[in-house]
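Below is a filled-in request sheet from our internal design queue. Each sheet records the structural input a requester submitted and the sequence that came back. We keep these sheets so that new team members can see what a complete request looks like end to end.

REQUESTER: design group, bay 2
PRIORITY: normal
MODE: inverse folding
CHAIN LENGTH: 356
BACKBONE (tokenized):
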């Protein structure tokens, strides 16, 4: 029996691990163990995603919660080490670029357990981003590097990583294709919010540079308020705390709501006029759903979305944000750079061949 231990901790991880865990079930000689670090502990940030994505209850929940990057990473490593020694898996799987990803990869590497990184090779080339540090370090201790695009493969080769790298496509695309129909059948989010298809903008903000730096958050909120467009804003807990500090005047065009589950989020994305975000996952989902995206960053690891014209980088410049909100232009062509939606199948097939 081959034991595979998967580590998740935050919303993007849940979306990425779901198709993988589903595919593992097809192999009788694979045993799956799931560890939830508890990096996201709010219900809508965690449990509702497990329900929507049909992820089994974790075998372990470390309950780490929030804290500084160093504290959170160290706490996960301390709690995870004993579990790895007890379970002694044949492989540890980490996904994405959050602190749980790095903590899982480092802990496994230090106790000499092979590591597979799903979504390897993405680079923004901005080492001020915690996610970029997590990506680079996780890739350099991994044995299997499953890349979502050709660009990510090239990034690894430039860093001297040439063994164990595979271009398998983006596993989030698997999840979207698997769940978009059922999401439409199950969610009533548009009716609940009293919004019409194609008549609202969807806003998400969660990155430290846009939340903890109040001047940046203030400029973003100034621009979306001035737009007078109907804005739906599922607010991240970090952003919510900071917005309260800004003492912003109540704006009639911005509807701030609590974080939503995966199904609700997909439908809000699919039916938006445009999406304004600083999230990597939301940028990709916007691209796949053919909804123009305005990204509140100076750079992105998802260069294909920008090159295609479906994603515009605006940083936190209010004038640039406003200009793109008002811009009615729509890209004419749409090419998918992220695989065929069978990423999980390819990954598990490779692992079945390589792990004995």
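RETURNED SEQUENCE:
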């Amino acid at each position: 029996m081959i034991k595979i231990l998967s580590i998740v901790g935050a919303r993007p991880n849940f979306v990425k691990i779901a198709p993988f865990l589903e595919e593992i079930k097809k192999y009788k000689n694979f045993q799956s163990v799931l560890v939830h670090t508890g990096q996201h502990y709010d219900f809508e940030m965690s449990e509702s995603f497990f329900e929507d994505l049909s992820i089994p209850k974790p075998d372990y929940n470390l309950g780490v919660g929030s804290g500084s990057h160093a504290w959170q990473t160290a706490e996960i490593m301390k709690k995870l080490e004993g579990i790895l020694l007890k379970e002694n898996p044949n492989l540890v799987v980490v996904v994405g670029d959050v602190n749980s990803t790095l903590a899982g990869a480092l802990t496994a590497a230090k106790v000499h357990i092979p590591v597979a990184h799903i979504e390897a090779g993405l680079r923004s080339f901005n080492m001020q981003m915690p996610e970029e540090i997590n990506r680079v370090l996780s890739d350099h201790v991994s044995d299997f590097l499953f890349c979502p695009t050709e660009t990510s493969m090239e990034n690894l080769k430039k860093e001297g990583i040439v063994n164990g790298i595979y271009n398998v496509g983006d596993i989030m695309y698997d999840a979207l294709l698997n769940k978009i129909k059922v999401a439409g059948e199950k969610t009533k989010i548009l009716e609940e919010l009293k919004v019409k298809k194609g008549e609202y903008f969807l806003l998400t903000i969660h990155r430290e540079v846009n939340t903890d730096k109040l001047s940046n958050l203030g400029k973003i909120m100034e621009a979306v308020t001035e737009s007078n467009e109907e804005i739906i804003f599922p607010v991240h807990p970090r952003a919510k705390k900071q917005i309260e500090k800004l003492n912003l005047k109540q704006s009639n065009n911005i509807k701030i709501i609590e974080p939503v589950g995966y199904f609700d989020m997909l439908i809000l994305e699919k039916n938006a006029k445009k999406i304004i975000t600083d999230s990597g996952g939301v940028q990709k989902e916007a691209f796949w759903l053919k909804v123009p995206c305005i990204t509140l960053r100076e750079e992105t690891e998802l260069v294909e979305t920008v090159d295609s014209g479906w994603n515009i980088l605006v940083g936190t410049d209010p004038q640039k944000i406003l200009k793109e909100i008002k811009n009615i232009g729509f890209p004419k062509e749409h090419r998918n750079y992220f695989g065929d939606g069978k990423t999980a199948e390819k990954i598990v097939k490779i692992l079945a061949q390589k792990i004995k």
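SHEET NOTES:
- The domain at 178-326 is CATH 3.40.50.2000 (Rossmann fold).
- The first helix runs from residue 11 to 24.
FILED BY: M.R.
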